[in-house]
């Protein structure tokens, strides 16, 4: 459906409903909790269980860089960062999709190498039934997350900041994190599943080796990062772990996502909720809840980096 890029109306956030036991569960469950993979791994808004495909671009498929696209967004802060507990640490935030991908379907449908096969450069992502685009959601949350991490002294790099016509493709997104030598990479998404499927989940990289993919060195650290984020996300947002992926842990392990397969640094995806479920959509379109989502992720990242 056509996307409405206007700011969504603010709705009242849902009261906290999740017990501390769920948070403890998310903090300790770091392995063996992967749900069934979606072979397609993409979503343009149709109801289905599973996250949208992530996107990155190789040099051979990316358009010529404009002056605003010559380096990853946020790579050079305009002012000195404050000293804080994350001083000296680098975090890469990967806002899922791009608001203008829908205007470049030919380009984003081109196949790129994900190490174990080939997949689309990117997808348009999903949206709420009212037209609030996932790509707008991910940028908003990513900006909030950047501010929270920078306030603690972290160097933050965005893979894009609505500053390019489409993409980046999934291989480029992974490469940006690798080249930044990031201590942690978080890809921000929202799911597009069936009505009644609710809650968040964090996607962890599976043990994958083939072609240009080798996750053997990041599986354990990524699982730790993901578990920390899941636990803090529960406590801060009040959202329960997914009732349709991850067996109630809020954690899912997948080996078919190029952004994870090609990463050489700890990386996870955070599916913040299901945009196609009315109750989840009411949260995702609420600015106050989005701030809580960013805070939950920031707290989880900080806990991971502090050890």
Radius of gyration: 17 Å
Main pleated sheet: 6 strands, mixed
- Which strands sit side by side, in order, in the main sheet? 4-1-5-10-6-9
Mean pLDDT: 82
Low-confidence stretches: 1-72
* Structure summary, number of beta strands: 10
| Count of DSSP-assigned helices | 8
Name the structural class. alpha/beta
Structure commentary:
The chain has 307 residues and is of the alpha/beta class. 29% of the residues lie in helices and 15% in strands. It is built from eight helices and ten strands. The strands form three sheets. It has a six-stranded mixed β-sheet, with helices on both faces. A two-stranded antiparallel sheet has the order 2-3. Strands 7-8 form a two-stranded antiparallel ribbon. Strand 7 (209-210) and strand 8 form a beta hairpin. The longest helix has 20 residues, at 287-306. The model is unreliable at 1-72 (pLDDT under 50).
């Amino acid at each position: 459906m056509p996307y409405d890029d206007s700011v969504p109306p603010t709705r009242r956030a849902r009261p906290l409903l999740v017990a501390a036991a769920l948070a403890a569960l998310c903090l300790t469950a770091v392995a063996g909790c992967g749900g069934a993979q979606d072979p397609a791994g993409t979503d343009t808004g149709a109801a289905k269980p599973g996250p949208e495909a992530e996107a990155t671009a190789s040099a051979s498929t990316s358009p010529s860089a404009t002056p605003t696209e010559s380096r990853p967004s946020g790579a050079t802060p305009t002012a000195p960062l404050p000293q804080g507990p994350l001083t000296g640490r680098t975090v890469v935030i990967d806002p899922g999709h791009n608001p203008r991908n829908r205007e470049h379907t030919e380009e984003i449908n081109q196949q790129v190498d994900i190490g174990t096969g080939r997949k689309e450069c990117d997808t348009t992502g999903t949206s709420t039934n009212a037209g609030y685009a996932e790509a707008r959601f991910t940028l908003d949350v990513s900006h909030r997350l950047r501010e929270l991490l920078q306030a603690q002294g972290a160097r933050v790099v965005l893979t894009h900041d609505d500053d390019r016509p489409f993409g980046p493709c999934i291989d480029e997104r992974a490469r940006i994190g690798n080249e930044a030598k990031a201590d942690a990479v978080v890809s921000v998404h929202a799911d597009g599943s069936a009505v009644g499927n609710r809650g968040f989940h964090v996607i962890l990289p599976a043990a994958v080796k083939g072609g240009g993919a080798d996750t053997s060195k990041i599986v354990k650290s990524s699982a730790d990062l993901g578990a920390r984020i899941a636990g803090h996300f529960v406590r801060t947002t009040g959202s329960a772990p997914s009732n349709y992926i991850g067996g109630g842990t809020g954690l899912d392990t997948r080996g078919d996502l190029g952004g994870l397969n090609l990463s050489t640094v700890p990386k996870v995806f955070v599916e913040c909720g299901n945009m196609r479920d009315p109750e989840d959509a009411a949260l995702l379109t609420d600015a106050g809840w989005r701030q809580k989502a960013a805070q939950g992720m920031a707290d989880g990242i900080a806990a991971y980096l502090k050890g």
